[in-house]
Design goal:
4-stranded antiparallel beta sheet, elongated, alpha+beta, 13 strands, Immunoglobulin-like, Rossmann fold
């Protein structure tokens, strides 16, 4: 192993290099790096959950009367996620995030008798987890409603197609769009054709989850969601200056032609080959051959000396 070369690669990539004689130390190195960049991850002390954003997950839970937790794991919430509960020092405790049509939730404490010892017997414990699981399940729309993004005008476009069992509304209710970073704006909906309504709303450069819903429940205009992908999900490519630097440091070539990949360019590379497996197999074969020849010779001699019957 070329230790100097590996250290050089780590330095060029702005990373670190570690050399272990025992793989069991890898776990400690990983934990040490995490703590170095994010601080201590596990906080064990009494904390009182704080409601940051009212959401359906908290309905009927009575989170205000929740007993304190004994610990949690520190982490940073995504900018486009919804932080429902906070722990100590504004660290997230319950976070929900929408990605495409899927949804995920993170609870940074536990659900057993270590950090949540007081929560296990708390009446709102079961209701909270039931609400979380229900929130993660997919919700079927009541009618054919679709939301899309018009890149030409940077507008959110929502189409409502009424089902046959839904009568034409006498009036279009007040409909609002809610997006990331506190985005909120009314959606103006117009009738396009019989049973077809459309609304358009400029959302600019906002990215993330947008929810469009009326102020009052309406079977004709149900809630619909649209997820505009963040730029980080669209990023691709590579760091060409770094790749060129690594190829120069290692004596290689950057983006060579396919036929030049295996071209030694007149250089010789020392290599070793273990011959003992082949020699051992050859010795075994020769031993078997010698045994067969020796036994075969004795068998021929025995047949040659055997007396033949004489007829009278």
């Amino acid at each position: 192993m070329n230790r100097a070369f590996l250290e050089k690669v780590a330095t060029a990539a702005e990373g670190k290099s570690y050399f272990l004689n025992d793989s069991t130390g890898l776990e400690q190195i990983l934990l040490r790096d995490v703590e170095e960049h994010t601080g201590v991850t596990a906080i064990e002390k009494s904390i009182q959950p704080k409601v940051v954003k009212q959401a359906g997950i908290l309905d009927g839970v009575g989170i205000e009367s929740a007993p304190p937790l004994r610990g949690y794991v520190r982490f940073q919430a995504r900018p486009t996620s919804d932080t429902i509960l906070e722990a100590d020092r504004t660290d997230p405790l319950l976070v929900r995030w929408q990605y495409g049509l899927g949804r995920s939730a993170v609870f940074t404490s536990d659900a057993k008798n270590r950090w949540a010892m007081n929560w296990v017997t708390w009446p709102g414990f079961d209701r909270l987890w039931a609400n979380i699981l229900r929130d993660l399940l997919p919700h079927a729309p009541q009618s054919e409603t679709a939301a899309d993004f018009d890149r030409a005008s940077s507008e959110l476009v929502v189409d409502y197609h009424l089902s046959r069992n839904v009568p034409e509304p006498s009036a279009i209710p007040d409909i609002f769009a809610f997006g990331p970073n506190g985005f909120q704006a009314p959606l103006k909906v117009n009738k396009v054709a019989a049973g077809h309504y459309r609304g358009r709303l400029a959302i600019g450069q906002n990215q993330g989850l947008f929810r469009v819903r009326p102020l009052a429940d309406s079977p004709a205009f149900p809630e619909v969601g649209f997820y505009r992908q963040e730029d980080e999900m669209l990023e691709y490519g590579n760091n060409e200056p770094l790749l060129r630097q690594i190829s120069t440091a290692t004596g290689g070539h950057f983006n060579p032609a396919p036929k030049a990949v295996f071209d030694p360019a007149g250089r010789s590379i020392r290599s070793t080959m273990e011959l003992w497996p082949g020699l051992l197999a050859l010795a075994i074969l020769m031993n078997l051959a010698e045994l067969v020849l020796r036994k075969w010779k004795g068998l021929l001699e025995a047949l040659h000396l055997r007396p033949h019957p004489v007829q009278a």
